[in-house]
Structure formats: structure tokens, C-alpha cells
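Worked problem 6 (solution included).
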Amino acid sequence: MESPYLDLKNSGMYVSGLEGAVGLLTAACGHLFVDVGKLLLNPLLFGFFHLLLTSLFAFLP
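Solution. The predicted structure is:
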């Protein structure tokens, strides 16, 4: 007959392992999302500021 303590310990280890895997996956997705966001936003921001500056200089005499 197995002790319930052992079963509880095993399930606890399984849950913590699962949480660790989910946390790792979330972190990886977060980094990927941030990298993709940077790649998409940098040209947009650069283009926006470039347009802003050129329009400002165009209005200057």
C-alpha cells in the first residue's frame, strides 16, 4: 500500500514542473512577441518621425 504523502509529493512535483514549462513557454512567447514588435515598430516609428521632421522643415521658410 502506497503512502498518500508520496502521491502528494509526486503530484506536487508534476504541477511545479508543469508550471515551470508553462512559465518558460510564456517567457519565450513574450520575448518573441517583443522582438517582432520591435521589428515592426522601429521602421514605423522611424518613418513617422522622418515624416514629422520633413513636414516641419517643409513648413519652415
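Discussion: The CA atoms of residues 10 and 53 lie 62 Å apart.
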